[in-house]
Design a protein that fits this description.
Blueprint (H helix, E strand, L loop, with lengths): L14 H11 L2 E2 H11 L5 H13 L3 E4 L9 E4 L1 H10 L20 H17 L2 E6 H10 L10 E7 L2 E10 L5 H12 L6 E6 L2 H10 L6 E6 L12 E4 L4 E4 L5
Parallel strand pairs: 6-7, 7-8
Antiparallel strand pairs: 1-3, 2-3, 4-5, 5-6, 8-9, 9-10
Helix pairs in contact: 2-5
Length: about 260
């Protein structure tokens, strides 16, 4: 890895949380990044936030992309200097290209990352989120440790629901896959031993219906809900389908 350009001082209370969030999010809009920083209490002034983001981008710690076909907001990703600081200087685990995530033609994969961020922010605002393990952390665990998950999930989450704490492997499904791909996913999920429930949040009703067809009667506890319902209701009230039985539950009521 290259050493970062310039010699700016990195604030451990404001710059560091921002860089970590950008790295773990893979891609994040300016508004989403501001919401993460404000929710955590690491940034309370929008003006200070804009100055900080520009400073980090100008010095090669993060990259700024304009992808109007994906989102009207600028989109940020971690850059090589940011990775040097986080990974080489601080020892934070990372799995990915040494120059940061690849911005592929047409922004492939960016919209998915932004959708996962939206789910994360909805759960943070609901105050039901106890813990969130990022895909990057899951990937590092799967590469380096014995206690692997069967899949590099979008997140592993714990929610406080109706007096219970429930843990889920979270998958955000934005676009359809082929029947062959879903067959492979079923085999992977049925081999999972480290998490008891998988929660699929579909980006559209069409995807919701497709998931029910493709995952029907899987030998794993898989629940399917609509991501678009989360901003409107409490997570405990989220309607989910248990694909083993096709029974509908509130998320708080799943057995």
């Amino acid at each position: 890895m290259r050493y970062f350009k310039g010699a700016i001082a990195i604030s451990p209370t404001q710059d560091l949380p921002l860089l970590r969030q950008v790295m773990y999010s893979k891609f994040v809009t300016q508004t989403q990044l501001w919401q993460f920083m404000r929710h955590s209490g690491n940034e309370l002034s929008r003006g200070s936030f804009w100055w900080r983001v520009k400073r980090l981008a100008d010095n090669g710690f993060i990259t700024r992309h304009l992808l109007p076909m994906v989102h009207y907001d600028p989109i940020f990703a971690i850059a090589s200097s940011g990775l040097v600081y986080l990974v080489e200087n601080l020892g934070i685990p990372y799995s990915g290209p040494e120059d940061g995530p690849e911005m592929r033609r047409g922004g492939l994969g960016v919209a998915h990352a932004l959708g996962v961020n939206a789910v994360h922010l909805d759960l943070l605002r609901s105050r039901s989120l106890v813990s969130w393990e990022y895909e990057m952390e899951i990937r590092c665990r799967n590469e380096l440790t014995v206690g692997k998950y069967a899949k590099d999930y979008d997140a592993i989450i714990t929610l406080s629901l109706g007096g219970r704490q429930l843990r889920f492997a979270l998958e955000y499904e934005r676009t359809p896959k082929t029947q062959t791909e879903y067959g492979r996913i079923v085999s992977i999920l049925e081999s999972e031993r480290n998490v008891d429930r998988v929660l699929y949040l579909a980006g559209t009703r069409h995807i919701h219906s497709l998931l029910k067809q493709r995952l029907w009667r899987i030998r794993q506890r898989v629940l399917i809900g609509l991501a678009s319902d989360l901003p409107k209701i409490e997570p405990a009230e989220l309607e989910v389908v248990d694909v083993q039985t096709m029974q509908v539950y509130r998320l708080a009521d799943i057995p």
